[in-house]
């Protein structure tokens, strides 16, 4: 009887020890378990881009047209250029009218683009919209390069410009009373 | 004569019985011997399991980044997390997403980088219910300081000691107020890892 009790006690002690070891091992293993690592690949393409925005969508000659004069100056037009490029030597801002002979129209009465002049507000000299298209931008005989920005170390940049526009009617026949309207197109191009 | 013969026969039978008893007696005595008891401990471990897999959306793309704006990736990342843990020894299971470098989550070269603060994640079924930047700390040794985002935390109880859950992770770039990025293809990697706490 004593032998059986002794054997039973030994067995229980051994089993308890074994269970205790398993328990300790499990407790250690379950603290801060980390899973495998799954991954997600991200790709995002930044394409070359030039954006052009204007602060005003319409300009009006407040005082009315003065014939045979160059005092017909519109309010300054504020434009902003943003560009991100990979190359190129210059960024040009081109303005043009759709039809050289009919830049502004008052019914069947027209002011040609040769009588409309533009320049940067910081510049002194005026130039008429009589140039050729630039790199496919513009219309022959009614275009004008308003700004030419050299692209040296600034392939990604922003620039704001103020543009002056006027009607130079000096020496031109008197205009017909009425509202003359037209659209000046603006576009930037890199070369 | 007959009596002597009978007597001899009886003697023989008696001897045979005696021999039989002698042979049988030791057997009866050996049946009472008992060996010492042998205790054998049995141990069987159910290993804990914790796995993360991307079911779909493992490659995310933006065809054309728009500067100064929010740019969403095309589709969510579907993430499946499976665990088998001991509820008495595990308080929670957490899923962490992270980049390895907060200053360069995506890059198109050494000088063209998008910081992890500009990458945002949202898990409607998890913790960042709204888009949140990858700017958190590591959790339980998982993640990168300043480039991590905890996606969910599940308290472990008896009923959910063995479980699988599937979540969608939405991703986007928030470039609001940022200078224009340089032209190029920006690439990066998000790491997903679960950890028990």
Using brief descriptors, characterize the structure shown.
heterodimer, A: 191 residues, mainly beta, Immunoglobulin-like, six-stranded antiparallel β-sheet, B: 197 residues, five-stranded antiparallel β-sheet, 12 strands, rod-shaped
What would you say this structure looks like, in words?
Chain A has 1 helix and 12 strands. Chain A is mostly beta strands and 191 residues long. Chain A has a single domain, classed as Immunoglobulin-like, CATH 2.60.40. In chain A, strands 2, 3, 4, 8, 9 and 11 form a 6-stranded antiparallel β-sheet that branches. In chain A, strands 10-5-12 form a 3-stranded antiparallel β-sheet, with no helix packed on it. The longest helix of chain A is centred in the N-terminal third of the chain and has 28 residues. Chain A starts with a helix and ends with a strand. Chain B has 197 residues and is mainly beta. In chain B, the strands form 2 sheets. In chain B, strands 1, 3, 4, 8, 9 and 11 form a 6-stranded antiparallel β-sheet that branches. In chain B, strands 7-6-12-5-10 form a 5-stranded antiparallel β-sheet, with no helix packed on it. At the A-B interface, α1, β1 and β11 of A face β1, β2, β4, β11 and β12 of B. β1 of chain A pairs antiparallel with β12 of chain B.
Give me the secondary-structure topology.
The complex is a heterodimer of chains A (191) and B (197).
Chain A: H1 2-29, E1 34-46, E2 49-54, E3 72-73, E4 77-84, E5 90-96, E6 104-106, E7 109-111, E8 116-120, E9 127-128, E10 143-150, E11 156-167, E12 185-190
Antiparallel strand pairs in A: 2-4, 3-11, 4-11, 5-10, 5-12, 6-7, 8-9, 8-11
Chain B: H1 2-30, E1 49-56, E2 59-62, E3 70-72, E4 77-84, E5 92-98, E6 106-109, E7 112-114, E8 119-122, E9 132-133, E10 148-155, E11 162-174, E12 184-196
Antiparallel strand pairs in B: 1-4, 3-11, 4-11, 5-10, 5-12, 6-7, 6-12, 8-9, 8-11
């Amino acid at each position: 009887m004593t032998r059986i009790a002794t054997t039973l006690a030994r067995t229980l002690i051994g089993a308890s020890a074994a269970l205790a070891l398993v328990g300790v091992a499990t407790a250690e293993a379950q603290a801060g378990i980390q899973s495998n690592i799954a991954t997600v690949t991200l790709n995002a393409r930044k394409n070359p881009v030039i954006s052009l925005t204007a602060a005003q969508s319409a300009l009006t000659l407040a005082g009315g047209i003065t014939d045979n004069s160059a005092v017909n100056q519109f309010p300054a037009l504020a434009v902003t250029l943003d560009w991100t490029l990979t190359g190129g030597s210059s960024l040009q801002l081109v303005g043009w009218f759709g039809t050289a002979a009919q830049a502004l129209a008052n019914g069947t009465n027209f002011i040609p683009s040769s009588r409309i002049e533009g320049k940067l507000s910081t510049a002194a000299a005026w130039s008429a919209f009589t140039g050729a298209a630039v790199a496919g931008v513009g219309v022959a005989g009614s275009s004008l390069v308003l700004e030419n920005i050299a692209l040296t170390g600034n392939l990604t940049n922003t620039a704001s410009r103020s543009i002056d526009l006027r009607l130079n009617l000096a020496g031109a026949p008197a205009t017909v009373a009425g509202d003359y309207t037209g659209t000046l197109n603006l576009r930037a191009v890199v070369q | 004569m007959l009596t002597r013969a009978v007597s001899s026969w009886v003697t023989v039978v008696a001897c045979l019985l005696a021999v039989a008893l002698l042979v049988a007696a030791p057997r009866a005595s050996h049946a009472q011997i008992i060996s010492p008891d042998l205790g054998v401990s049995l141990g069987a471990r159910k290993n804990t399991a914790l796995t993360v897999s991307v079911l779909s959306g493992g490659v995310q793309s933006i065809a054309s980044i728009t500067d100064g704006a929010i740019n969403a990736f095309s589709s969510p990342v579907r993430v499946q997390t499976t665990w088998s843990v001991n509820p008495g020894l595990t308080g929670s299971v957490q899923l962490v997403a992270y980049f390895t470098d907060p200053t360069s989550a995506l890059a198109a070269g050494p000088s063209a980088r998008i910081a992890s603060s500009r990458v945002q994640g949202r898990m409607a079924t998890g913790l960042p219910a709204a888009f949140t930047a990858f700017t958190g700390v590591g959790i339980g040794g998982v993640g990168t300081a300043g480039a991590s985002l905890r996606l969910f935390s599940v308290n472990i109880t008896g009923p959910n000691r063995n479980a699988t859950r599937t979540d969608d992770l939405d991703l986007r770039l928030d470039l609001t107020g940022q200078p224009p990025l340089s032209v190029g293809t920006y690439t990066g990697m998000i790491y997903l890892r679960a950890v028990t706490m």
